[in-house]
Amino acid sequence: MVDRRENIMERLLAVLQTVPGVAYVVRNRGELESDKRPAVQLMDADEKPEDTPLNRGRPAFAPNRVRMTPEIYITLSTLDPSQMGPSLNVLRAALLKAVLLDKQLINLVGESGDIRYDGCATDLARGRDMVGQMVVNITFVYVLRPSEL
Question: Spelled out in words, what is the top-level CATH class assigned to the domain 4-148?
Answer without folding.
Answer: alpha beta
